[in-house]
């Protein structure tokens, strides 16, 4: 199944790492949302008909989650784990995904960038998109990452442990930022 991809269009956009650019449409997507135009409540409301778990809502509203009030264009790269770590046994760790993304010139995504991008992403059933932001210390003192998943009940925003050694299926998609 081919995913809709928004290509970089601004002349001042950063250049993608050559090997990453070659993979657009083959496991890599580029999205360019406008960020910094709403507050946390507006970000969650902007998810529309997506279901947000109570716990994910509490995480987004944690004081350490900073939402930019300066409007800016973001460049979000969504890439499958199999692209990040090609030689895997069906699983990759959070640390492997972060290190491979760093090698491609990608940075952790901001929570507001992740939430603003979600409505533009195609989500087939069973698909996970993991926001690779700095982990949010959860209500039970575990680092958490936000995740969008399509299940039989629709598209959900929830969270999962974001420890460096946490395991992910290698066909999960991970959202990072491409910084200027």
Molecular structure report:
This protein is an alpha+beta fold and 180 residues long. Helix content is 21%, strand content 27%. The strands form three sheets. Strands 1, 3, 5, 7, 8, 9, 10 and 12 form an eight-stranded mixed β-sheet that branches. It has a two-stranded antiparallel ribbon with strand order 2-4.
Order of helices and strands: HEEHEHEEHEHHEEEEEE
SSE class = alpha+beta
What is the number of strand segments?
A: 12
Helix content: 10-25%
Give the helix tally: 6
Question: What is the molecular shape?
Answer: globular
Largest sheet features: 8 strands, mixed
Overall average residue pLDDT: 84
Query: Roughly how many Å apart are the termini?
Result: 31 Å
Uncertain parts: 1-13
Which band does the percent of strand residues land in?
A: 25-35%
Q: From the alpha-carbon coordinates, what is the Rg to the nearest angstrom?
A: 15 Å
For this entry, give a set of tags:
180 residues, alpha+beta, eight-stranded mixed beta sheet, two-stranded antiparallel ribbon, 6 helices, 21% helix, 27% strand, globular, disordered N terminus
Which SSEs are present, and which pair or pack?
Layout (H helix, E strand, L loop, with lengths): L17 H4 L6 E4 L2 E2 L4 H6 L5 E2 L1 H7 L11 E2 L2 E5 H4 L6 E3 H10 L7 H7 L10 E4 L4 E2 L5 E9 L2 E8 L5 E3 L3 E5 L3
Parallel strand pairs: 3-10, 7-12
Antiparallel strand pairs: 1-5, 2-4, 5-12, 6-11, 7-9, 8-9, 9-10
């Amino acid at each position: 199944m081919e995913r809709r991809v928004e290509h970089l269009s601004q002349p001042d956009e950063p250049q993608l790492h050559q090997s990453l650019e070659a993979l657009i449409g083959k496991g890599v997507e580029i999205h360019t949302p406008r960020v910094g135009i709403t507050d946390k409540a507006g970000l969650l409301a902007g998810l529309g008909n997506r279901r947000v778990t109570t716990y994910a809502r509490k995480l987004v509203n944690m004081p350490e989650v900073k939402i930019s009030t300066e409007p800016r264009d973001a460049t979000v790269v969504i890439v499958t784990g199999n692209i990040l770590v090609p030689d895997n046994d069906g699983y990759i760790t959070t640390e492997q995904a972060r290190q491979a993304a760093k090698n491609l010139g990608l940075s952790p995504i901001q929570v507001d960038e992740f939430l603003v991008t979600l409505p533009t992403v195609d989500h087939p059933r069973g698909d996970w998109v993991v926001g690779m932001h700095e982990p949010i210390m959860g209500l039970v003192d575990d680092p958490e990452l936000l995740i969008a998943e399509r299940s039989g009940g629709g598209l959900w925003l929830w969270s999962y442990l974001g420890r460096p050694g946490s395991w992910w299926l290698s066909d999960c998609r991970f959202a990072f930022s491409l910084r200027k």
